[in-house]
Amino acid sequence: MIKSLVSHIPSFSPTSKLSLRKVMLTMTLGASVALSGCSLFSVYKIDLPQGTPITQTQAQKLKVGMNQNQVLYILGSPAIRDTLAPNRWDYIYDYKAGTVGAREGITDVKNASQHLIIYFDGNGIVTRIEGLDSLPTS
């Protein structure tokens, strides 16, 4: 009985073993190359801008003596309006590049390195502007 089962097992010739080895090697190499490109399987990360992006050309439109409405029209709402210091508006901008930003080569802006501060008097008129040098030119 055992002898009859053994006689029905197909035996592989050396050429078929060699072709099977080539197929297995090709499949192994193909799978390792496909899986090594982990960027294909990574999670999509969004670009994370926080605050108001302001350039020097926008900020140079500000002048001492403008009122709060004119500043809002030029720059938009400030990131910080402190209730304890209502005569100071802070425009802060941070940016963390996600998948698209990294592909386009956009650098991160960290630790509030773009920080514009506008001071007003009691009547809401601009008295001082700080941080123009921290803003990008364009």
Strand-helix topology:
Layout: H1 2-8, H2 14-36, E1 48-51, H3 56-59, H4 68-75, E2 80-81, E3 88-96, H5 99-104, E4 109-120, E5 126-130
Antiparallel strand pairs: 1-3, 2-3, 3-4, 4-5
Structure report:
The protein is 35% helix and 23% strand. It folds into 2 domains: 2-40; 48-134, Beta-lactamase Inhibitory Protein, Chain:B, domain 1, CATH 3.30.1450. It is rod-shaped. Strands 1, 2, 3, 4 and 5 form a 5-stranded antiparallel β-sheet that branches. With 138 residues, the protein is α+β, with helices and mostly antiparallel strands.
Tell me the overall shape: rod-shaped
Q: How many separate domains?
A: 2
User: What is the percentage of strand-forming residues?
Assistant: 15-25%
Number of helices: 5
CATH topology of the largest domain: Beta-lactamase Inhibitory Protein, Chain:B, domain 1
CATH level 1 name of the largest domain: Alpha Beta
Round the mean pLDDT to the nearest integer and report it: 77
Relative helix content? 25-40%
How far the N terminus sits from the C terminus, by CA atoms, comes to 87 Å
CATH architecture of the largest domain: 2-Layer Sandwich
**Any idea what the radius of gyration is?**
33 Å
The tally of strands reads 5
Low-pLDDT segments:
none
Most strands sheet: 5 strands, antiparallel
Going by helix content, strand content and strand pairing, the class is: alpha+beta
Order of helices and strands: HHEHHEEHEE
